[in-house]
Amino acid sequence: MIEPSAQRQIRAAGAALAVALLSGCVIGNGRICGPQTPMIYCDKAAYERLANPPSLMESWQHPSNTPEARQLDWVSCGGTEKGSYAVVPGTTGAETAARSGAKFDQIQRCMMGRQYQYTGTCQGEIPSRFPACQRAEGAVPQR
Predict the structure, then answer these.
(1) Contact in structure between 118 and 133 (CB atoms under 8 Å)
(2) What digits encode the pLDDT tens for the residues 100-121?
(3) Contact in structure between 55 and 84 (CB atoms under 8 Å)
(4) Angle at 97 between CA 67 and CA 72, to 5 degrees
(5) Which of 12, 18, 74, 118 is deepest in the core (most CB within 10 A)?
(6) pTM higher than 0.85 for the full model?
(7) Quick check: 62 and 117 in contact, CB under 8 A?
(8) Among candidates 132, 128, 68, which has minimal Cα distance to 106?
(9) In sequence order, what are the residues at sequence separation of 6 or more whose Cβ sits closer than 8 angstroms to the Cβ of residue 65?
(10) Are 26 and 42 in contact (CB under 8 A)?
(11) Rounded CA separation 133/115 (Å)
């Protein structure tokens, strides 16, 4: 049998341990977020953008077209109805990547030819090479 004073000391030590373990932790986005948790998991809006990114098609805007017209234009330029594009198979992985990249470039040129403006990011090694990111500011897109 443990004496009452020893029980109080054990409880106090347990409470102190719990406080030490939980200090710096917050509950965000339905999760317990501590100092080592990436903040993307704690910020609901940022998590939603990461978990459900917009389609490639949604990065194109036209001042006078509706989203439905944009989808029709995207598909007629070679994209899919869901806003992406189909991978073009090759005999090797490198060939598949090259063919698929060329198809995406063609879709971008087509959208620019229809007077759409690219609103996606041009930052990063790959996006900075997109045809939509190469066009000089204010230049008329080539058809």
Answers:
(1) yes
(2) 999 999 999 999 999 999 999 8
(3) yes
(4) 15
(5) 74
(6) no
(7) yes
(8) 132
(9) 73, 116
(10) yes
(11) 15
Beta-carbon contacts of residue 28 (< 8 Å; ≥ 6 apart) = 42, 43, 44
Which of 24-28, 79-83, 98-102, 116-120 is predicted with the least confidence, judged by mean pLDDT? 24-28
* DSSP assignments along the chain, one per residue: ---HHHHHHHHHHHHHHHHHHHTT-EEETTEEE-TTS-GGGT-HHHHHHHHSPPPGGGGEE-TT--HHHHHHHHHHTT--TTSS------SSHHHHHHHHHHHHHHHHHHHHHTT-EE-S---STTGGGSHHHHSPTTPPPP-
The amino acid occupying position 26 is V
Lowest mean pLDDT among 7-11, 18-22, 44-48, 62-66: 18-22
Q: How many CB atoms lie within 10 A of CB 83?
A: 17
CA pair distance 31, 82, nearest whole angstrom: 31
| One-letter amino acid for residue 130 of the chain | F
Q: Is the pLDDT of residue 11 over 60?
A: yes
